[in-house]
Amino acid sequence: MSRIGIIGSGVVGSATGRGFQKLGHDVKFFDISKSKLKELANLGYKTANTLDETVSSTDICFVCVNTPTKNGEQDLSQVLSVLYDLTNVINGIDDYKLIVFRSTMLPGTIREVVVNHFDKYCRGKRGVNYDICYNPEFLRQETALDDFFRPDRVIIGEDRSGASHSLRKLYEELTGNIIVTSFETAELIKYASNCFLSLKISFFNEIGMMCRNLGIDDKIVSLGVSLDKRIGKYGTETGRPFDGMCLPKDTEALASFARRQSIEPDLLQVVLDINKKMEDLTTKKVIRGFRD
Fold first, then answer.
1. How far apart, in whole angstroms, are the C-alpha atoms of residue 37 and residue 28?
2. How many CB atoms lie within 10 A of CB 283?
3. Where are the alpha helices (DSSP H) in 57-182?
4. HSE, side-chain direction, 13 A CA sphere, residue 251
5. Choice among 61, 133, 211, 246 that is catalytic
6. For residue 278, what pLDDT is reported?
7. Is the pLDDT of residue 8 over 60?
8. Burial class of residue 50 (count of CB atoms within 10 Å of its CB; 0-12, 13-18, 19+)
9. pTM for this prediction
10. What is the average per-residue pLDDT within 228-232?
């Protein structure tokens, strides 16, 4: 049994903590939202009033705070706030801690922002007093807990061989498909996965618009294509833009990131343009239905 702390108890943090507790681990939740903690406490889960209490009483801490996209750029304000508090807490304790980030972050963020902050402000030595890993999540908002228990794969980023040993042991009960790689590779796997799903949805929305112009039933076309085992059903149903917590923000953020690398994100921009077109069509349909 491991002692696990969850920092940020929204969709990802809640599913991660509840999942590990069901596997028999001792889990404690923390969030700046008192209502989230109250809800978890009412369900019988352990909660902490402070981040200090969470880190001090656990061995592995999962950081699951939000990284929204604002004006096309990733907003790391919540991550930076946690970093400041984490280093202060770790400086005051002697026990070894593994800090695992699950928040979606662009390639280079863990090394250039997270690791640099710890190296600069922690009195202890990384690899001796603490370690940092990156473990991106692939959870859908509506089925997050079920997705936790049925992962297609687990991705772990590390920069010190063996740093993720205890983390790998946690996941071995769920899957044998565990890929341990560099921070940057793990970060890009997360973005590439989400952006491919955005691309797939936009592609089939464009096919759907073509179907309507030709008087073809787009549902039959989607069914016929989705039965190809190489493609599958997800994202082939036309008629609405991709939405939710992750796909829009991550596609926009990766497109902006590519431009900073002097790479023109032609395909990602087309995906975003098609999605905007679908948003406009959906809005017009709702307004027309209201007027009718």
1. 10
2. 11
3. 77-90, 109, 116-121, 144-149, 165-171
4. 28
5. 246
6. 87
7. yes
8. exposed
9. 0.90
10. 93
Instruction: List the structure tokens of 197.
Output: 């799903």
Crossing angle of helices 266-291 and 183-214, rounded to 10°: 50
Element of type H or E holding 261: none
Backbone angles phi, psi at 146, to 5 degrees: -60, -40
Query: Do 283 and 240 contact (CB within 8 A), yes or no?
Result: no
Nearest alpha-carbon partner for 57 in 97, 21, 101, 1: 97
CA 104/CA 101 separation, integer angstroms: 8
Secondary structure letter of residue 262 according to DSSP: T
Query: What is the token pair recorded at 141?
Result: 């908002």
The values of phi and psi at residue 74, to 5°, are -70, 135
pLDDT digit string (tens) for 35-91?
999 999 999 999 999 999 999 999 999 999 999 999 888 999 999 999 999 999 999
Question: The tokens 């922690």 sit on which residue?
Answer: 122
- No. of helices (H) and no. of strands (E), the chain: 12, 10
246 as an active site residue: the answer is yes
Contact 146, 22 (CB under 8 A): no
From the CB of residue 146, how many other CB atoms can be counted at a distance below 10 Å? 12
Can you say whether the dihedral through the CA atoms of 173, 131, 190, 137 is positive or negative? positive
Q: Output the CA torsion sign for 179, 181, 187, 192.
A: negative
157-200 pLDDT, tens digit per residue, is 999 999 999 999 999 999 999 999 999 999 999 999 999 999 99
Q: Provide the Cα torsion 96, 1, 137, 230; round to 10°.
A: 130
Helix (H) or strand (E) holding 130: strand 130-134
Query: pLDDT for 203-223, tens place per residue?
Result: 999 999 999 999 999 999 999
